[in-house]
Design the sequence.
């Protein structure tokens, strides 16, 4: 654990620098795209992307991150920021086009390999909903096994790997959800409701176990300073309740958005049917007149 504490300052510096650089590239590209499209690029997407980067900074480089070895609640908050909150905001910001524009201005044709057919096929495989679901569930379960949890807490390199895996798993998990609203998506929006529901199951099992368990699961917190007057068991219960509440609310909001969109599409289809029938009748009527004239 001492290596984790000693390297936290340098880690925060490099993470902060990388996030600032990513925000600079994105905003530079976004402004270029917005000027070329005469302001048609929505400003809320840029705000969403920047807030997503801010959540990553809070989880990995802020003063809050320095408490993750003292409180399980803080450790759980990091996981939620990296897996549940930051990824959908970054993906909603549609970072590829603005970032590619900014990189093109600086480094030339850097995005050409990304447009190659093999890379596109690989992207289709990686973003398959089944793979994305198992990646998120696997990362969640693996890093909460006590031995793996202690490895990430006591080793600085493994701590970085742990946080990176949570972020990557979160991006993979949310990519089918965000892309399902796009016109190019191959997956029906109705399937995303089942996708989100199934994703709550491993989270509910883990959070329920932490809340109702009558002993401390991660023994390292028994010797940690008693922050905010919470015992180790109370801290564990707060961590489980935080996970349970946050995941439920976020997934419920996403499910409500999909339900509202599905209902709106259904109503628009119902309205288009009478119009289609009237047009069909008009065409048949015109054809019959033409036949009579002949």
Sequence:
């Amino acid at each position: 654990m001492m290596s984790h504490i000693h390297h936290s300052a340098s880690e925060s510096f490099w993470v902060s620098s990388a996030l600032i650089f990513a925000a600079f590239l994105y905003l530079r590209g976004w402004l270029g795209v917005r000027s070329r499209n005469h302001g048609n690029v929505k400003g809320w997407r840029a705000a969403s992307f920047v807030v997503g980067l801010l959540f990553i900074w809070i989880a990995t480089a802020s003063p809050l991150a320095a408490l993750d070895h003292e409180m399980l609640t803080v450790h759980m908050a990091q996981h939620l920021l990296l897996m549940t909150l930051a990824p959908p905001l970054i993906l909603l910001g549609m970072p590829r086009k603005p970032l590619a524009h900014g990189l093109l201005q600086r480094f030339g044709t850097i995005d050409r390999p990304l447009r190659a057919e093999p890379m596109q096929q690989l992207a289709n495989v990686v973003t398959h909903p089944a793979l994305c679901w198992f990646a998120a569930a696997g990362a969640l379960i693996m890093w909460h096994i006590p031995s793996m949890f202690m490895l990430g807490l006591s080793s600085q390199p493994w701590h970085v790997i742990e946080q990176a895996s949570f972020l990557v798993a979160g991006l993979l998990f949310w990519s089918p959800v965000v892309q399902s609203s796009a016109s190019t998506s191959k997956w029906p929006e109705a399937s995303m409701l089942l996708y989100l529901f199934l994703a709550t199951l491993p989270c509910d099992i883990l959070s329920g176990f932490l809340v109702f368990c009558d002993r401390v699961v991660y023994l390292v917190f028994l010797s940690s300073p008693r922050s905010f007057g919470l015992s180790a068991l109370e801290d564990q219960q707060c961590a489980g309740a935080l996970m349970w509440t946050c995941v439920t609310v976020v997934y419920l909001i996403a499910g409500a958005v999909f339900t509202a969109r599905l209902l709106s599409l259904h109503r628009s289809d119902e309205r288009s049917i009478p119009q289609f029938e009237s047009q069909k009748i008009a065409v048949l009527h015109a054809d019959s007149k033409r036949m009579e004239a002949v």
In short: The chain has eleven helices and no strands. The two ends are 93 Å apart (CA to CA). Residues 2-293 form one domain. Residues 1-6 have pLDDT under 50 and may be disordered.
